[in-house]
Amino acid sequence: MPNRRQFLTRSALGVGLAAVPVALLTSGAGRSGAAADLAKFADPLPIPPVLKPGATLSIRQLAGTIRAHSQLPPTPVWTYEGSYPGPVIDVRRGQPVTVTWSNKIESAYPVTAVEVPFTGIGSILDPGRGDAVPLPEVAALTPSLVTHLHGGAIGAASDGWPMDLRAAGQAQVAKYPNDQRASTLWYHDHAMDVTAYTVHAGLAGLYLVRDPEEDVLKLPCGVKEIPLVLADRNLDTDASGAYNGRFLHKIGYYDTALGRVRLPFAGPFSTVNGVIWPYLDVTAQWYRFRVLNASNARTYRLELGKENPDGSTTPLNGAFVQIGTEQGLLGAPVRQDRLTLAPAERADVLVNFTAYRGAKVRLSTVDDGTLPLGREVLQFRVASPTVSDSFVPPAAPSPTFARVTAASLPATRVERWVASATDDGTTGGHPEMWELGRVAAGYQPQHGDRLVKIVKNGVTTTFRRVALNFTDPVTFTVRPDDWEVWNFVHLSGPNHPTHIHLVSFQALSRDTYDVTVATDPANDVLTYTATYGAPKGLGPDEQGWKDTIRIDEHDLVSVAAQFRAGTGSFVYHCHILEHEDHGMMRPFVVGTASAPVSPAPTSTSSGHHH
User: Fold this and answer.
1) What is the pLDDT of residues 103-139, one digit of tens each?
2) pLDDT score at 600
3) For residue 232, which phi and psi values (nearest 5 degrees)?
């Protein structure tokens, strides 16, 4: 892949829109009316095919086209088996599957990529590229790919090491034990430095694990179990300003004293299963939805509302009955007015349409006050006939579920610390992920140090940054089967939904801290002081087994996991894809390392070259 490493340069480090200076967010925020040119709820929701493999499964990565909207020309994409999103892979716990991911893509990169000066929210959310010139280095990307089973409890050789790439004509063989509880996983490309582009092109799909505990619940199934893969998109335009059918990866940039800051992608169009603003015909019964946020950077805050004759909606409070998080079923169902999903988060939810016979129910996303994206996501058209449905949500979706607490963990557990910060200490700087090491009292800062002081209950604990870049030496080496607590402290910058490969974890706590920063320009030293403020608490959607957790500004989030499913080299990273590509990813080792962290050549044959 030409110039892959250029995406890891300091000048290319993206930040989230939450970090953009307020003056820029509010200036020029008017949106063009081009997005309104496409009719809402004009196209039916496509349902990806379901594959129930035996001991082996072959999946091809293929170039193809989809119809993202009936008013658009065909859209070129990269796919798994010609489906966008990829097929739903449906497996049973304890029945291992060997998947051969065969790269059969020989076409050029299908998405147009541009960068524009960030002059206000409209500069990136307006549809079309305007007079921006497509980036030649992105247009030249070749399909060097590696698939990661996100949430899979698997050995390192099958995890999808970001540099273990397969070019066209090559194959990746992965062994998935499926020895984990019933869960909503997903698979996606994980190519080093360019995941934001390959996933944007279409390389993502759901992977469902089922077990006997789920079977006895008799949950809605078949046509009443619906995958909903959400992602925001923009549309490319030709010289006349007309849509040409291609997706558009348009990002904004602005300049600071330390260089150019590039923002992650945000788009004006909501897609579900690859279609812009689709509709789904449903009967007046209970349905089960497997919801995945596959966006590059956008957080969805979803709500259901009954459509009124004037086009408004009446919120249906408590309409979401959440029975599971990413890594399994909950101990008790949770009724929610809103469902919050950051990138890579999933939810297993039930919705009862019985009371809405003949009505239209709209799934919308609620603005958070900083990113005025389009609200509409999906329309449910509820049939008028009465349908008999005796289903009742289970009182205990997972009777074996138990909350992990600090008190239930081994007293001698290892605790690790990771900070998310910016290079200049301001909210508008380049986001970075720092691994921290504790220093003794009286430590004298060295040139270039980044120090973090955590103050709680009158006690100050001081850390220094010990690793920053992906290629820095590994500092997290885990003993197989050990329980560990990882503490993520957010010092400055945008939110960071963070994913740890290999494990399922539970969040122990979420607290807010008051953060200050002191600078010593002469010695290039930044010292952050984070002083405990108050318990923020975990949301009802954060009480279960997870593999991705939201880290909001000035939060300290602690999670606990047991590293028992595999050994070797793995990674953890921010799942805002542009952040992941631009440096916010670090390796860790369980047992003995299985891969180098320096760039490695693509294998010339099937299998892995660890």
Assistant:
1) 999 999 999 999 999 998 889 999 999 999 999 999 9
2) 38
3) -90, 150
The tally of CA atoms less than 13 A away on the side-chain side of residue 340 is 11
- Convert 477-510 into a string of H (helix), E (strand) and C (coil): EECCCCEEEEEEEECCCCCCCEEECCCCEEEEEE
User: pLDDT, tens digit, for every residue of 173-191?
Assistant: 999 999 999 999 999 999 9
Pairing of strands 414-422, 483-490: parallel
Q: Which of 445, 585, 579 is nearest to 520 (CA)?
A: 445
Distances (CA, A) of 458 to 346, 423, 432, 455, 531: 38, 28, 28, 6, 9
Closest CA to 289 of 74, 88, 80: 88
Return the residue matching tokens 């009724």: 335
Rg over CA atoms, the chain: 23
Sequence-distant (6+) residues with CB within 8 A of 487 are 415, 416, 417, 418, 556, 557, 558
What kind and span of H or E run contains 99? strand 97-103
Q: In degrees, to the nearest 5, what angle opens at C-alpha 28 toward C-alphas 26 and 31?
A: 105
For 319-373, the DSSP string reads -EEEEEETTEEEEEEEEES-EEE-TT-EEEEEEE-GGGTT-EEEEEE---SS---
Residue with tokens 């500004």: 553
Which residue in 515, 529, 557, 532 sits closest to 453, CA to CA? 529
Q: DSSP assignment, residue 433?
A: E
**Mean pLDDT across 308-333:** 97
The separation between CA 102 and the C-alpha centre of its own chain, rounded to angstroms, equals 24
What is the SS3 assignment for 577? Answer: helix
CB of 518 closer than 8 Å to CB of 543: no
CA distance 610 to 603: 10
